[in-house]
Amino acid sequence: MNCSAKNSNNNSSSSSGVTRSAGGSGKCRSRSNRNRENVSTLGKMTASQKSVLISSWKFIKPNANFIMRKIFTELESVSPKVKQIFAKAAILDCFSKESSDAKACTVDEHVRLLSRFIDDVISNIDKEKEVRNILRKVGQSHAGLSNGSLFTSSLWEFLGEIAVAKICQVDYVQKSREAAKAWRLLIAFMTDELRNAFDEQVKIVRRSSVDFSKESTETDITEKLKNIHLEYQDSSHSDT
């Protein structure tokens, strides 16, 4: 099964600021909305599927940051708004004296956090409640970036699509039909939980903030990204 995303020169931009190829990513797309009944719980994954996720992650983990960077690089290429967020963060990082805080906003730090995020999910693969909590905290923490439609729920879908495609390109996964299926199921589940938690929190933010619709400034973006970093760090420590 070829799990690489299809590319096309004929791209179109959606209202969410995402440029999609005409061919899409075919069978590799997470399609979490369409398959929600099949992937709504980790409990429906077989012991064999969970085992192959753990074994394949052990193979992937040493090069996880390289793969995560490829995921973010492609996400930036299909979403100008994501590229805008990281570009502003990188500029501010160059001029910030508080380098440790500023770096929390950069692509480099997000690469590291995504690797750690997936590692936490795999480590708790038999603990559905813990996995849901991890996913929901991350989804909720991004709600502040939705001001001015800077970050929309559709971006979770594109992140899931790209993650499936890149992970399916890893030799270990590519050679195992069961591993590829297990990763598609897991990422679809993760995408569902991230998006739903994000959407729920956005509704809360909208009700509580009269300034919700205003465009975010560079400083706003930096503060929100720092908060995302700190919230995930805190939740990781509390779960250990």
Please characterize this protein's 3D structure.
The chain has 240 residues and is mainly α. It has one domain (46-239): Globins (Globin-like). Helix content is 65%, strand content 2%. The protein is built from eleven helices and two strands; from the N terminus they run ββααααααααααα. It has helices spanning 36-39, 47-60, 64-78, 80-95, 99-102, 107-123, 128-141, 154-168, 171-174, 177-208, 218-239; strands at 11-13, 19-21. A two-stranded antiparallel sheet has the order 1-2. Helix 7 (128-141) crosses helix 10 and helix 8 (154-168) packs antiparallel against helix 10.
First-last Cα distance = 37 Å
| Strand segment tally | 2
**How many separate domains make up the residues?**
1
Strand content: under 5%
Order of helices and strands: EEHHHHHHHHHHH
Which strand order does the major sheet show?
1-2
Overall shape: it is: globular
Specify the helix fraction band.
55-70%
Look at the structure and give the mean pLDDT: 75
Quaternary structure type: single chain
What would CATH call the class? Mainly Alpha
Q: What CATH architecture do you see?
A: Orthogonal Bundle
Count helical runs: 11
Biggest β-sheet strands, sense, barrel: 2 strands, antiparallel
Give start-end ranges of low-pLDDT stretches: 4-16, 20-39
